[in-house]
């Protein structure tokens, strides 16, 4: 019995020994695998941190790009605004000199009118005091020139003398009235320029106050924008002068081969008889349709801030409402319109194109003429000189 138990015990010993070996190997394997798992975990965490840092860097880069873009846009806005204000100041200064000149001419014409009026008064006073009432009666009661001339030779001589006095007086009076009209138009237009300048100046002050609070280097950028604006304004002024020289040459050619008598009569009739008489010339059919539609409103009033083609519009409201009629949406202000659509060279201008000035806009109608809501005094009218002020840009909105 005892002999039989020994092999059993020996087997148990072998089993436990084998189990111990296996357990040791398993523990050894587990301790060997643990650093690998830790490394994997650390690698994963590092990758997550790397991705997070990358995302943060991308966001910072995007914000930096956005800030740079905003700064660039601000520089452009500042430069454009300052350029417009520079040109407005130039145009206001030019307009003031024109007003002073027109005022001198008007005062001269008015003094001449007064002198001639006094001569007429003395003439009729002399007739009355000398008892030459018969001639005065004939002159005042005559229905035709023949009634006076047929009196006798003496009355004929008196008539010719007095007719000359009256004709000269009427001519002088009309000249004085015409100069007064031009003077008042210039003053009204200067007032419109001052209003537009005030709007631009307020916008600039608001922008400077806001951006100075946001950006530490704003003053440096403002100085740079002012310098750039001065350069841009000078370029625009030179370009306008070139346009005026070109315009003079075109005018000379037009004088040599003058347009037909019918066009000239239509132009005169448009000024004297209101809308409907003048038509646009040249260019595309669409542009002519736009210009002809705008011409229907000649004689209607100018109203600052208005957009009504009948009851009143300002310059930008006028062209905006005209284009709205044809389904073309353009910006509201003259400053925005100066950057809208395609830039067109002066010599390629067609009916419907917008001629943009600092603080003002007109529509070209062909033949060297524009239609625009000019001022409170002038209203909506046609003028012959597209370069009568500094041209900032010529745009085609369609």
Architecture overview:
With 398 residues, the protein is of the alpha+beta class. 71% of the residues lie in helices and 8% in strands. The protein has helices at 2-129, 133-141, 145-149, 153-214, 218-256, 261-273, 285-295, 315-325, 334-337; strands at 307-308, 312-313, 342-343, 354-357, 360-366, 369-375, 379-383, 393-396. The strands form two sheets. The chain has a six-stranded antiparallel sheet with strand order 3-8-4-5-6-7. Mean pLDDT is 79; it is low at 29-33.
In terms of topology, how is this protein built?
Blueprint: H1 2-129, H2 133-141, H3 145-149, H4 153-214, H5 218-256, H6 261-273, H7 285-295, E1 307-308, E2 312-313, H8 315-325, H9 334-337, E3 342-343, E4 354-357, E5 360-366, E6 369-375, E7 379-383, E8 393-396
Antiparallel strand pairs: 1-2, 3-8, 4-5, 4-8, 5-6, 6-7
Helix pairs in contact: 1-4, 1-5
Terminus-to-terminus distance: 119 Å
Computed structural class: alpha+beta
Strand content: 5-15%
Strands ordered across the widest β-sheet? 3-8-4-5-6-7
Oligomeric grouping of the chains: single chain
Rg over alpha carbons:
43 Å
Mean pLDDT: 79
Most strands sheet:
6 strands, antiparallel
Can you tell me the overall shape?
Answer: elongated
The poorly predicted ranges are 29-33
